[in-house]
Design a protein that fits this description.
It comes from Falsiroseomonas stagni DSM 19981. This is NitT/TauT family transport system permease protein. Keywords: Cell membrane, Membrane, Transmembrane, Transmembrane helix, Transport. Helices cover 78% and strands 0% of the residues. By secondary structure, it is mainly α. The chain has one domain: MetI-like fold (Orthogonal Bundle), CATH 1.10.3720. Helix 3 packs across helix 11 and helix 6 packs across helix 7. It is flat and about 75 Å long.
């Protein structure tokens, strides 16, 4: 018995075949992973070949293999510094998220407050952190708190601005409907404005995750403090002074990997929070 498929059924069958998963990933998903890895391996191979072919000394430019070897041998020192940098980064990101969300909610409730305070948030954002960090270290006795303030200043504005935009982006027709049903300010905020602002808040959080790490590193450079407060930035300075360039590159690798890990973790949180109800994270349904 022959079976004749309609054009729609045939198209659906082709789509299902093309979206067949291998180890939990579609061909497009594997392409997104394997192509950047291929480019990365080729770049590292070319780097290692150039260093060996030109006989470049390690105190000028170490190769990837030597950097990896240094990362393993100096892991005891570098891991402790990484932990300190991560503590400052996540503390600054947490404070930035809480204060940014709270202040954005306040702005959404009062246009006058927003017009009065938002320009100062802009001024805080556009002022280079390297220019005000020395003053912060003079005014604040505790080095950890000073580092936290510097990292918070860098990470604060994207959350505030994105969340404020999200809260003000609620559909005006829905706002009028809530008012028609005599909903109070808290109900409008809870059931309409906050859900509308959630994707904006999470987008700002992803941006601020990397900025908090950058702020922590820059603050550590300015502080230049060793001992218990020695983060990865101090290890870079220390390695530069001692001409231990492989350790410097190993510290840079840790910073880069940490930044990527933070972005991926926050992207995963955003996807899990939005995947069931927001168009930006929902899969297209045919």
């Amino acid at each position: 018995m022959s079976v004749v498929l309609s054009s729609n059924e045939a198209a659906t069958a082709v789509e299902e075949h093309s979206e067949r998963k291998v180890l939990g990933l579609t061909p497009d998903g594997w392409l997104r992973i394997l192509m950047p890895m291929l480019i990365g391996f080729l770049a590292l191979g070319a780097w290692e070949w150039a260093v060996r072919a030109k006989e470049i000394p390690s105190y000028i430019l170490p190769g990837p293999i030597e950097i990896g070897r240094t990362l393993l041998t100096d892991w005891g020192t570098l891991s402790g510094s990484l932990l300190i940098t991560l503590q400052i980064t996540f503390a600054a990101l947490t404070v930035a998220a809480v204060l940014g969300l709270a202040l954005a909610v306040l702005f959404a409730q009062s246009r006058i407050i927003e017009l009065s305070l938002f320009p100062y948030a802009v001024i805080l954002q556009v002022t280079p952190i390297v220019a005000i960090a020395p003053l912060i270290f003079i005014w604040v006795d505790d080095i950890r708190i000073a580092l936290l303030i510097c990292a918070w200043i860098v990470a604060f504005f994207p959350i505030l601005s994105n969340t404020t935009l999200g809260l003000n982006s609620a559909d005006h027709n829905l706002v009028d409907l809530f008012r028609l049903y005599r909903a109070n300010r808290w109900q409008v905020l809870r059931y309409l404005r906050l859900p509308t602002a959630m994707p904006y808040f999470l987008a700002g959080l992803r941006i601020s995750g990397g900025l908090a790490l950058i702020g922590a590193i820059v603050a550590e450079f300015v502080a230049g403090t060793g001992g218990r407060a020695s983060g990865l930035a101090y290890r870079i300075l220390e390695a530069g002074y001692q001409l231990k360039i492989p350790r410097m590159f190993a510290s840079l690798v840790l910073i880069s990997v940490t930044g990527i890990a933070i972005f991926l973790a926050l992207s995963l949180i955003s996807h899990l929070a939005l995947r069931h109800w927001h168009e930006s994270a929902m899969k297209e349904r045919k």
